[in-house]
Amino acid sequence: MKENKPKQIVLILAIFLLTLFVTIYGLNTILEKPEYNDFCGDRSAKPVETQESCEVDGGKWINLNEPTFRGYCEITYECKNDYENARENYAKKIFLIAMPLSILIIILGAFFIPVNSVGTGLMLGGVGTILFGTGSYWGHASNPLKFFLSLLGLLILIWLGYRIEKRSKKK
């Protein structure tokens, strides 16, 4: 039976994209993404004349010490910090769920799906899920954590590649 490469490539890409959609939208359904307005509401710019009134409203007074302009109030200072902390926590949760999920998807595609184009599409979807998971938290992670995770991911993929190659030689 003659293989139809263009159709296989389209199938691989479609499975890759839909695997990403399922994981991303699934995680966003399970975990509530923080919204800026939930933390800061509608804090429209209003004139704040003193440091005291600024801080009472949850802002931070920025001193300029200029003769014509003493300073200004960053009115969203506290709520913005709370929002950023919630976003970091959300990104960490996404990361902690997406990483093992992506490894499972790659293993599923590599070892348990006998149709080559379907397995390849799932494996690519797993790689995309790795990018989604790490991309959401990477900016918050420390360099030693980034190094450890990169090394761990590399070792897992080398092991997986070895197992796939060994398995294909047996056939």
Structural commentary:
With 171 residues, this protein is mainly alpha-helical. The protein has a domain at 5-35 and 82-140. It has helices spanning 5-30, 36-40, 51-56, 77-112, 116-137, 143-170; strands at residues 60-63, 71-74. Strands 1-2 form a two-stranded antiparallel sheet. Strand 1 (60-63) and strand 2 (71-74) form a beta hairpin. Helix 1 packs parallel to helix 5 and helix 4 (77-112) runs antiparallel to helix 5 (116-137).
Note the topology.
Blueprint: H1 5-30, H2 36-40, H3 51-56, E1 60-63, E2 71-74, H4 77-112, H5 116-137, H6 143-170
Antiparallel strand pairs: 1-2
Helix pairs in contact: 1-5, 4-5
Summarize the structure.
By secondary structure, the chain is mainly alpha-helical.
- Mean pLDDT value: 88
Radius of gyration: 24 Å
Helix content: over 70%
The share of residues in extended strands comes to: under 5%
Query: In which order are the strands of the major sheet placed?
Result: 1-2
Order of helices and strands: HHHEEHHH
State the end-to-end CA separation. 19 Å
Number of strands: 2
Query: Which stretches are poorly predicted, pLDDT < 50 over at least 5 residues?
Result: none
Q: Specify the oligomeric state.
A: single chain
The outline comes out as elongated
Q: Could you describe the largest sheet, including whether it forms a barrel?
A: 2 strands, antiparallel
Helical region count?
A: 6
Structural class: mainly alpha
